[in-house]
What does this fold into?
Amino acid sequence: MTREEDDKELYKQYLKGDKKAFEKLVIKYKNNMIYFIARYTKNTQIAEDISQDVFVYLLINKNQYDFKYSFKTYLYMIAKCRAINYLKKEKRIINLNDYENIYIEDNDLEEEIFKEETSQNVRKVLNQLKPDYQAVIYLTSFEGLKYKEVAKIMNKNLNQVKILINRAKKKMKILLEKEGVSYEG
It folds into this structure.
C-alpha cells in the first residue's frame, strides 16, 4: 500500500468513527506541516497554532475531503490558505526563511563542515528567491511532492508549476554559482 493509499484508508476509518486513525494522520503530518507553515509565518508557535486549526478544520469539515486527491495535498492546501490568511491579517510579507540543515548523516568532521557551509549557502540563496520559487523548491525538494500536488497547493495549473520550478532552479543555480557552490538542480 502506498503512502497515499494508506492516508486515504486512515481517513476512511476516521470517517467511520475511528478516532485513532485520525490521530495517526495528525502524528504523521503535524511536524512537517508546522515546518511548512513556519516558512510563511516565521514563527513556530504561530505555525503550531495554525497547524492545530488545520486539524480542527478537518474534524469539523470531515466530509469535504475529496478522495480523488492525495490527503497530503489536501492538508497542505488548507495549511497554506490558513497561513496566508494569518499573514493578511497581520500584514506581513511572505518570505520563506531558515531552512533546516538539509544534510544530515556523515560523522566525518571535515565532511560535516563542508556540508554545513554548503547548507548555509543554499539557505542564503533560497532566502533570496521570490516566495513562489521558495515554495516550489520546498514542496518538491523537501516535501517530495509531485508537480500535480504542488499545483493544487499553490493554486496554479501544472504548466505554471513546471515553469516556476524551471525558473527557480535556474535562478538558484546562478545565485549558488555566485557563492562558489556547484548546483546540479
